[in-house]
Amino acid sequence: MPAEWEPHEATWLAWPHNREDWPGRFAPIPWVYGEIVRKLARVERVRILVQTAALEKQARRILEKVGANLDAVEFFQCETDRVWTRDYGPLFVKNVPGETALTAWRFNAWAKYDDWQRDARVPAFLGKRLKLPVFTPGMVLEGGSIDVNGQGLLLTTEECLLSGVQARNPELRREEVERRLGDFLGAARVVWLKQGIAGDDTHGHIDDLARFVNAQTVVLCDESHPADAVTLRKAGLKVVKLPMPGPLWFDGRQLPASYANFYVANGLVLAPTFNDANDRAALTILAKQFPDREVVGINCTELIWGLGALHCMTQQQPA
Question: Would you call 78 a catalytic residue per the annotation?
Answer without folding.
Answer: no
